[in-house]
Protein 1
Amino acid sequence: MEYFLKLFLSGTAKGSIYALIALGYTMVYGIIQLINFAHGEIYMIGGFTALIFGGFFFSKGMPVGFVLLFSVLLSIIYAAAFGYTIEKIAYRPLRGKPRLSALISAIGVSMVLQNFVLLAQTEKFLSFPSYLPEFKWLQPYKEYINSTQLIILGVTAVIMVLLTFLIKFTRMGKAMRATAQDMHMAQLVGVDINQVISVTFILGSALAAIGGVLICSYMGQINYYIGFIAGIKAFVAAVLGGIGSIPGAVLGSFVLGWTESLGTGYISSDYEDAFAFIILIVILLIKPEGILGRTQRQKV
Amino acid sequence: MKVRSILADVRKSLGIAVWAMVLLFPLMVMKVSVTRGVAQVQFRWNLLPFVGIAGFVLSFVWRIALEWKDRRGNNKSEGAFSRVKAWGGQYFARPAVRKSSLVALLCFVIAYPFLFGMYHTNVMITAFIYVILALGLNIVVGLGGLLNLGYAAFFGVGAYTYGLMWKYLGHSFIAAGIDPGWLFWISLPLAGIMASLFGILLSLPVLRLRGDYLAIITLAFGEIFHMVMQNSSDITGGATGISLIPRPWFFGHKLPPPQAATYIYFIAIVLVIITIFIVRRIEDSRVGRALEAMREDEVACEAMGINLVKNKLITFALGSFWAGIAGVIMAAQTTYINPDSFTLWESIIILMAVVIGGTGSIPGVIGGAILLKLLPEYFRALAQYRMLIYGIAMVLVIIFKPDGLIPRKRKQYTFEEKELSK
C-alpha cells in the first residue's frame, strides 16, 4: 500500500506537468485543429531559457528568490515570444490550406527548433540546478512527496483555476470559445481571429514554459531532445481527456501520469514511454472522442 | 516601386531584425555550461550582428517570396520561365524523345557501378532504397491522403524479418548445405507480406478516425516498434542488433565486397523499376481512383459507394509492402541492422522526400528521395546542419510550393482549342 501511495503521488506530480503542456496543445487544437508538434520544443526552450538566465543571475551573486523569480519570468516571456513568432511564420500562411500541410509544417518547425538548440547550445545533458525552495515541514513525509512535487501540484492547481477563469469570464476567453466553435462565424460577428489565435499560442507557450522549468527542476537535467517525447505524451493526455476540452486535458494528464508511474512501478521500467502509446491506441479503439470529449457529428 | 513603400519595407524589416536579435538572444548569445551543479554563462556577442543581419535580409526575402506566391496564384502561365517549361514539356511529350532519353538514362544507370566504383555504388543503393520507401509512402500519403509518421517501423519490420530469418534459420540452412544467401530471396516477399500485415494491424484502430489522429497513432507505433526492438535483447539482439547478415545468393558464388555491392545495386534497380511499374498501375486502377477520391473528400467518396474501410486497409497494406522490401535490401547491403536505423526521424526524412519531391507525383517522389539521400553524401561539411536545413526546407516547401518541386499532374479533360478562344 505504501509503495502504491508513493507511485500514485509521483504519478500525480508527473500528471500535473503533463497537464501544463497538454493545456497548450488542447487550446491550440481547439481553435485551429492543428497538432502543434513544436509545442514540446517550446517547453524545452522554456527550460533552457530558465537555465541560462538562472545561471547568469546566480553567477552575478543575486539571492536565490530573485534568481528564481526572474529566470522563470523571463523564460515564460521568451517561450511566449517563440510561440507567437512560430505561429506567425509557419502556421499563419497555411491557414485555410489542407490540415495536413500545417501538421507537416509543425513537424518541420519542431526539427528546426530542436537542431537550433542543439547547435547553439549543446548536445549534452546538462544538470539543472534547482532553485525551488525546500519545505522543512515536509521532511517527515519525504518518503511520499518532496517539495518540488508539492510545488508542481500547487502551481498547476493555481494555473488551472486562472485559466478556467480566463476562458469562462473574460472577453478574450469568450472570443476564444467563439473562434473554437466556428472561425468564420466568429469573424462575422467581429472577433479578431488573428489576435485570438496569437493569444492562444502565447498562453499555451507560457504554460509550456512553466511546465518546462518545473519538470527540469524535478528531473534535474535538460537537453535539446526532452521536448519531443514530453510533447507527444502531453498530446496523448489531451486526446485521452478529449482534445479541445480543458478539464479533459487535465484529467487525461493525471490518468496518463498515474498509468505511467504505476506501470513502471509494477510492470517494467524499460517500457516507460510505451505506456502512453498503448493508452493512446486503447483509447482510440474504445472511445476516440476521449473521456470528456463530445462526439462531433459530421455535417455535409 | 515607390520610395515610400520601400522605406516602409525597410522599417518593417528593421523591426523584424530587432525582434530576431531579442528573441534569439538567450539561445544564440548566452551559452550555458554546467559544472558541478553551477550554471555558467558565456557571452558570444560576435553572433549578435549576424542574427540581426540575417533577420533583416530574410524578412525581405520572405516578403518577396510571399508576393511571388500570390502573383503565381493569380496568373499561372506567364513569364519566360514557364514558357521554357511548357516548351520542354511538349518536347519531352514526343514519344521519340521520351523513349531515347529513357534509354540513355537506363544506360547511364547500368554503367554507373562500373564507372564510379564501390563507394558511389553503395551511396546509390541507399538512394534506391529511399526511392522504394518514398514510392511506398507515396501510396499512403500521396494517393490516400493518410499521413503516416511511423513508416520507418515498416522498413524495420522488413529488415528484421530478414535479420531474424538469418539469426534463427541461418545455421540450419548451413547445416543442410544450402547457401544462406537463399534466405534473401525467401525473405524478400515474406518481408513485404509481414510489413503489410503490420500495416493492416495498425490501421485497424484508426479506420474511423481523421487524418491527424492517424499521424499520431502511426508515430506511436513507430516508437513502440523501436522500443520493443531495443528492449527485447534475447530475441532480436536488442540495441546491438543483428550482424553478419548474408548477402543475396548469386549462383553459389561468394562475391567480394565490390562485386557484391554491384550485384545488390542491380537487384535494387530491378526492384525500383518493378515498384515504379506497379505503383503507376495502382494509380490508374480502380483502387487508385478510389483512394484519390477518398483523399479529396471522404464523405462524398462514401456516398459514391466506395468502401472506405476496405480502401484504407488496402492503402496501408500496399504502402507498407514496399517498406518491407526496402528493409530487406537495406539489411543485405549493410549486413548489419539495429533499432536505431528505424527511428521517428527516419520516418520523417522519408516523408520529407515525398513532400519536397511532390506529394502524389511519381517522378517528384523519386527525385526527392534521391536528392535527400545524395546531397548529404556530397556535402559532408554541412553534416551537423543537416536536420536543421531539412526542417527549414520542409516548412518552406509546404508554405511556398505545397505541391512539391515536381508537382503531380492531374488528369483532366482538355477541350478543343477553338472552343476556348472564342
Protein 2
Amino acid sequence: MIDPIFLLEAAVNGIMLGGVLALLALGLNLIFGVLDVVWIAYVDLVMVSMYAVYFTVMVYGWPLWLGGLAGVALGVVLGLLVHVLIITPILDSPPVNQLLATGGLLFFIQSFATFLWTTDHRSVRIALPPLEIAGIFVSYARLISFVLSIAVMIGLYLFLTRTYIGTAMRAVSQDRGAMALMGANPQRVYLVTSAVGGAMAGVAAVLLSIQYSVHPYFGAAFGPITFMICVLGGLGNMVGAFVASFIMSEIIAIGGVVWSTEMGYVIAFALFIVMMFVRPGGIFARRQ
Amino acid sequence: MLELRNVTAGYGAFTALWDVTLAVERGEAVAVVGPNGAGKTTLLRVISGVIAPRGGDFVFEDAPLGGRPAHEIVAHGIAHVPEGRRLFPALTVTENLKMGAFLRSARKDFRDSLERVYALFPVLAERHRQRAGSLSGGEQQMLAVGRALMSRPRLILFDEPSMGLAPVMVLRLFDLIRRVREEGYTILIVEQNVRQVLKLVDRAYLLEVGRVKMHGRAAELSEQDFVRKAYVGL
C-alpha cells in the first residue's frame, strides 16, 4: 500500500504540471480556433525558444528574467514567421495539406536543431531547494512555473474578453466571414492570433526551461500530450482544454507514483482513446 | 449617395449580374426585389466588398469603392446586415454590439451608440449579458440590426432580413426597419417579400436573371400588373 502522503504529493505535482500543459494547450487551441489550422509543430517552436533561454542565460550570462523575455520575444517572432511563411499560402487548402505542411515544419525544426545544437541535453535548471509544506515536498521551480502560467492564462482571459481585438478573435472563431463586415481586417486578426499563440509558446518555453533540459526532440515529449489535451477538451474549446490539462497531468502524476511515469502516460493515452469513442467531440461537447 | 453604373459581377465562369445601374439618394429607402437567383445577394456582396465587381463603377459619397475589401467599405460608412444574420452566437449581446463598433472611428462613440441601440430595441438592454445564440429569432434580428448601427454608418444594407422568420415576425421586422429609417439612416434592402417591402421603401428595382428589369416609385411598382401577378400574389 502506498503512503497517502505520496499520493497527495503526486496530486500537488500534477496540478503544477497541469498549469504548464494548459498554457501549451491554450496556445495551440487559440490558433486552431481562429485560423482553423492545427500547428503540428507548436511544441517544436517551444523547443527553439527554450534554446534561446539556454543560450542567453547559460552562454551569454544574461539574468534569467532577461533571458526569459528573449524566449518570449522569440516565440512571438516564430509565431509570426510560421503564419506569414507557411500558413498564409495554405489557409484555404484542404486540412490534410495543412497538416502535412505544419508536420513537415516539425521535422525541419527537429533536424535543423540537431544540426545546429547536436542532441546534447542542455539545462538551465536553477538550483532551488524544494519547499516543504505540511510534509509534502514541492519543487520551487514547478511552483514558480505554475503560478506564472496561471497568471499568464488570466492575462489571456482578460485579453480575449476585454479588448476589441481579443473579442474579435473569439468572434472570428465563431464566424470567419462576418468579422470583415464589422470592419476588421481578417489578415490582421490572424497575425495577432499567431503572435499571441507564439507568445504563449515562448512563456511555456521559459517555464519549462527551469524544470527540464532542452534537446532537439523535446517536442516529441510534450507535443502528443498537448494535442491529446486539445482534442479531449474539444478542439477550439478553451475551457475544455484548461480542464483536460489538469485531468491528464493528474493521471500522469498519480500513475507515476503508483506504477511508473511511463505507466502514467500509458493510462492517459488509453483513457484518451476510450474517450474518443465515448465523446468524440471532447468532454464538453454537447450531444446532438 | 450611392451609385452603381453598369456593374457586372459573378463567381468563376458564372455571371450573376449584368450591367446593373442603380442609385440611392441620401435619406432614401430603396429596395431590390426579384425571384430567387436574380442576383440580389450578389449585388449586396459587391457593395459590401465581399466580392469584387468584374466591370462598371461603384461610387459612394464621391469615393470609388469598386473592388475594395469588405473591412474598408465599412470604414467608408456602409454597414451590412447579412443574410442569415451572422451573429456571433457564443458572444453576449453586448459583445456582439461591441464588435459592431470595431472600427477605430466607432470605438470612441461606443457608449453613446450602445445607448442609442438599447433605446431603439429595449429588449436587447434587458438581455445584454445573454449569449446571442440563446435569443429568439426576432431578438436575433434586432441584434443584427443593432450591430450594424454600432459602426455609425450612413447607409445600411439589408440582405433578405425576413428570411426564416415566422409570418408574424416578418411584420414586426418591417416595423423595426421602419424605426431605423425614422432615425435618418439611408437604406438599401434586398427582399423576397415584395408586398411588405414595397410598403416600406420609396423606390424599388426589379432584378431578373442578373439584370434590372424595371425600376420606379414603390407605389407605382406595386400597381403594375406584372409585379402584382408575379410577386405580390394578388
